[in-house]
Amino acid sequence: MTNTPALVDEAMSVISAGSHATADHLTHAEEIFGAVGKTLRVPESQQDACTALSGSGPAYFFYLVEAMTDAGILLGLPRDKAHELIVQSAIGAATMLRDSGEHPVKLRENVTSPAGTTINAIRELENHGVRAALIAALEAARDRSRELASGTKD
């Protein structure tokens, strides 16, 4: 399984060894998927979780950018400026997360000043249950992936 960032050679692909797969088969699959991004080997039992996180992950990101763009417009920015601010911030944050080796909590804390703007925004996200909603959404995606894989529901 891969995801749509394969279109820009930034995919996250996940493979599992089937009962007839050899080490050579897995290596060959990694070479193929490696042409469009990164590849991770996981047990078959983790495929549905990977689908929830990475297969659908780009859509969650686009949804977040959409909401933040709407907020930027509400705050008085033109759509194009709000979009540019958000996209570049996301690229920078993702690069820091990938390259720094720091835990995301540490990186967030580095931006979060006492009584500052960020902690006030985080408080609102927590008060509105955003973390719990994200976890529930990923569980729902995992569960739907299981249903689709089993062929029990359309």
The total count of helices amounts to 7
- Based on CA atoms alone, the radius of gyration comes out at 19 Å
Low-pLDDT stretches are none
Strand content: 5-15%
Structural class: mainly alpha
Mean pLDDT: 96
From the 3D structure, determine the CATH topology of the largest domain: ProC C-terminal domain-like fold
Query: Approximately how much helix is present in the residues?
Result: 55-70%
CATH architecture of the largest domain: Orthogonal Bundle
CATH superfamily of the largest domain: ProC C-terminal domain-like
Question: Layout of SSEs?
Answer:
Elements: E1 11-15, H1 23-34, E2 37-41, H2 47-55, H3 57-74, H4 79-100, H5 104-111, H6 117-127, H7 130-150
Parallel strand pairs: 1-2
Helix pairs in contact: 2-7, 3-4
Provide structural commentary.
InterPro entries: 6-PGluconate_DH-like_C_sf, P5CR-like_CS, P5CR_dimer. This protein has 154 residues and is mainly α. It has 2 domains: 4-44, no CATH class; 57-150, ProC C-terminal domain-like (ProC C-terminal domain-like fold). The chain contains 7 helices and 2 strands; from the N terminus they run βαβαααααα. It has helices at 23-34, 47-55, 57-74, 79-100, 104-111, 117-127, 130-150; strands at residues 11-15, 37-41. Strands 1-2 form a two-stranded parallel sheet. Helix 2 crosses helix 7 and helix 3 packs across helix 4 (79-100). The longest helix is centred in the middle third of the chain and has 22 residues, at 79-100. The two termini are 20 Å apart.
